[in-house]
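Q: Can someone sanity-check these two? First one:
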Amino acid sequence: MTNETGQYRQHAPPAVRHPAFAIGSLVFGIVALLTSVVLAGMLFGVVGLALGIIYRQAPGPRNAMALAGVTFSSMAIVIAFVLIYQHYGAVTERARLREEYMTAVEHWVGEPGPDVTLPTADDGEIRLGEIEGQPALLTFWTPECAVCLRTKSQMNRLAGEYSEDVTLVGVTPEKPEQVDSFLDEHEFEYPIASAAHVELPPPYEEALHLPITIALDADGVIRDASAGGKHYEDLMELAFGEDG
């Protein structure tokens, strides 16, 4: 009985390529390539690559689907890796610039906010040096900044509840016409100024390229600054201090 079993195992036909692995590799490879701009693309690529390798290592006739799946999957993995590396580098660079800015802006605390006149999207203008009589928050943002848009909703809430107690101004490097187009899609309850054609003095110039909120007191003196997105409580503290 043992000999018969051994002989059966010895003469058992080897595993052959199953077309499902080739089809799966091709499908996952295509999906991976289409979604390579996000992390899911790399995951799909790994699955497609594994299925293709399993198929091509098994004995039996081959077809081009597995090869295409392996190729697409490999391309997707490389693209996703490069994009992730670039994103990590950009995030690291922004963090470094933010840290350097926050260190530099400390020297401005207690100094009058620089005077500069900026055009607004409604053909008006705002003179930052004339913001006095009540606390003010200057938010520096760009349309592609996700945390800036989240902060915007909190700024809108603050504007709705304390419009007579605090001055809110948004400053962006976009041109007035671009700002106007952006405002057609996003509601702002406070004025937005464009610095596209204006040379901003420090510390405002450096703030343009980071999500920064600068707080001025009722005399127009820089009282505080904070980087990154802001919750409502953060804005209240920046605007009114601990007593807000």
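And here is the second, same format, sequence then tokens:
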Amino acid sequence: MQILVNPADELPIYRQIMRQIQEAIAGGRLKPGDKLASHRDLAEQAVIAPLTVKKAYDELEALGFIETQRGRGTFVCEKPPRISSADQRAQMRETARKLLSQAYLGGMNFEAAVKILKEADREIAEGRKEAS
């Protein structure tokens, strides 16, 4: 899997890595049991510090998306983490508020924000199809 980082992005690099791995898992491009690149290999490929990759991997592991097996490597967990539906709704509501605030501050209306959401859904769905 190719990870692309943008140093100019307001999102920290380790968070960019986390987001791309989570999206790849959600989209089916990374499947349970798939092996991820080592810290050093990914750092070399993305031209970043290995500790940045380690931080991303550590947080993903704490969230239950990946697991490190000593001497073998880092793998996508067999079962992705599950959160309660109430917690999921609360997280989605907060994310939706942030998205809409950003859209409105940028001069977009609700319909334009929905269009962007649909485009993102299509991209994730395409990732699922490619992985099948």
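A (reply): Looked at the second one. The first helix runs from residue 13 to 27. The CA atoms of residues 28 and 39 lie 22 Å apart.
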